[in-house]
Amino acid sequence: MMNDQSVRLDRMRFTKNTMSSRLVLLAIVFDAIYFVSLYKINVDFYYNMMMGASILYNLVFMLAAFLASEGVKNYRQNFSWVLCLLGAIQIARIFIWPVQAHQTTVTVAGTQLLAMSNGQFVRSVIYLVASAACLFVAAVVNFTKSRALKAHIAGLEGQKA
Amino acid sequence: MAQLSLQHIDKIYDNNVQAVYDFNIDISDGELIVLVGPSGCGKSTTLRMVAGLEDISRGNLLLDGRDITRAPAKDRDMAMVFQNYALYGHMTIYENMAFSLMLRKEDPNVIHKKVLAAADILGLTTQLNKKPSQLSGGQRQRVAMGRSIVRNPKVFLFDEPLSNLDAKLRGATRREILLLHKRLNATMMYVTHDQTEALTLADRIVCMSMGHVQQIGTPLELYDSPNNTFVAGFIGLPPMNFFDVTFENGVLHGKGFDVQLSDAEKATLADYNRKAITLGVRPEDIVEGGDLPVKVFSNENLGMNTLVHGHTGDNIRVTAKLRGWTDYKNGDTVKLGFKRKHFFDKETTNAIRKGDR
C-alpha cells in the first residue's frame, strides 16, 4: 500500500512538471515586458550597439527559454542547468544596457538629460530580476522533482527485479 | 450498484415522429441488459434517454427507486461509452482517464489510485503516457471504458462500443467487456445491432423493432422460443428459414413438400387445423435426408459445418447448416428434413405455443 508521499511521487510518472514550465513561461513574459519597454526612453535619438544587441538577445532568450520550458515539463534534469544559465545572463544584462542607458546623458535643445530615467531604470531592473528569479526557481523545482522521480522509478524497477 | 426501472417510456420527437413505444423493463443490480435490433429501431434512443441525453416524452425512469426522469445527465451517476470513443486527442491516456475526476476536483492522490486501478483492470498500465493516436482501436475503446470505471458509476451504458473495430478485435474486446462485467458486477445497458454480441454478453436481451419491444428474455429464450417471426428471423445466424404451410390432420402441407408432425407438435397446432401458418426452421435444425427437395445454388464450407443455400420448388430460399464437409455443386438437388420446428400465426406473426388459444 502506497502512502501519500509515494503516491505523490508516483503521480509524477504520468503528469507533467507544469509548475517549472509555467514559471519559465512567466520569465518569458517578464522579459517581453522589458523588451517592449526598451523603446520608451526619454529622448528619441539615443541609440548604441548594445541596445540592438539586447533586442537581438531577447529573441534568442525567448526561443531558448521556451524550449527549456518544454524540457522541464518532462522532468529533464539537464534543462535545470540551461535555466540557471539563462537566469544568470538575465542578471548580467542589468549591468549592460539599462545601467549604460541610465548613466548616459544626451543634450536636447541645450539641456542635458538622462537617456533612461530613474523610474524606467528601476522598472527595467525589476523585470529582469523577476525574469531571472522565475528561471532560478523553475530550475530548482525541476532539479528536485526530476531527481526524486528518478529515484522513485529506480525503486520501482528494483521491486520488479 | 443499482437497480434501474423503465416504466412505460415513450419518445416522441418535436416533429411528432415516435421513436420508442411503451418501453418497460426492470433491471436488477449487476445485470447486463443488451438492447438489440436493426438500425432505427429505437435502441440507441432508449439508451440516450436513460443517460439523460434525450428527454423522456412519457413514462418514468427510476434508479434505486428514485425518479430521475427529469434529472440532468450529470446528476444520474451513469457513465456512457460511445462508439467513437470520444477521447481527448491532446491528452495522454492517464489524463483522459483522470479528466472527469479532475473536473470534480477530487484529491489528485485519490484520482491517481483510481486511474491506476482501472488501468490495471483493463491492461493499460504500460500505455498511460501515450496519446490516443498511438493506440489501436481496441485499446482506445478500453480507455473509454476506463474513463467510465474511474467514476465508479451506478450504471454503465454502452452505445455500440465495438462497431468501429475489426472482427478479430471485436471478439477480443467483447470478451474483455464480459470479464469486466463479471469483475465489477455492475449494472450495464449495452446497445448493439450485432446479435452475436447480444447472445454472448447479455444476461437478458431486449429485442426491438420499429420502436416496439418485441421480446425480453435470456439469450436462450430468444433463440429457443422466439415470440414472433421478427425475433425468430433476427436472432440466429444464419437466420431462420420460413415456409408458408397449411396444417391439416397432423401434416404440414407446403408447396412441393409435406411434413409429418410429432404428437406434441400436433397438440400445439390443435387449434389451427386446415389453417395457413408459418413454419420456421433454423438452418442448424435442417438435416440431409427428408421430404423437402432443394436446388442448391451455393455451398459454403466452414470447416466443421457447411452452409448450403438453395431454393425450394416454390422458389423459397432455404439455408441449411449441415454438419461436416459437403460438396454440393450449383444445380444439385438435395432432399432435406427438419428436426426442431417453430410455428407462427400467419396473421399476427406471433409464435404458436401449446395452450396459447
Give short descriptive properties of this protein.
heterodimer, A: 161 residues, mainly alpha, two-stranded antiparallel ribbon, 6 helices, 75% helix, rod-shaped, B: 357 residues, alpha+beta, Rossmann fold, OB fold (Dihydrolipoamide Acetyltransferase, E2P), 6-stranded mixed β-sheet, 19 strands, elongated
Offer a concise description of the structure.
The complex is a heterodimer of chains A (161) and B (357). Chain A is mainly α and 161 residues long.
Could you describe the 3D structure shown?
The complex is a heterodimer of chains A (161) and B (357). Chain A contains 6 helices and 2 strands; from the N terminus they run H-H-H-H-H-E-E-H. With 161 residues, chain A is mainly alpha-helical. Chain A has one domain (17-160). Chain A is rod-shaped and about 80 Å long. The mean pLDDT of chain A is 88. Chain B is built from 9 helices and 19 strands. In chain B, the strands form 4 sheets. Chain B has a 6-stranded mixed beta sheet, sandwiched between helices. Chain B has helices at 43-51, 93-103, 108-122, 137-150, 167-184, 195-201, 219-224, 229-234, 263-268; strands at 4-12, 18-27, 32-36, 58-63, 66-67, 78-81, 155-159, 187-192, 204-209, 212-217, 241-248, 251-254, 257-260, 275-281, 286-301, 305-311, 317-323, 333-338, 342-345. Chain B is α+β, with helices and mostly antiparallel strands. In chain B, helix 2 crosses helix 3 (108-122) and helix 4 packs parallel to helix 5 (167-184). The chains are: A mainly alpha (161), B alpha+beta (357). The A-B interface holds A 2, 4, 7-8, 10-11, 13-15 and B 92, 94-95, 108-109, 112-113, 115-116, 128-129.
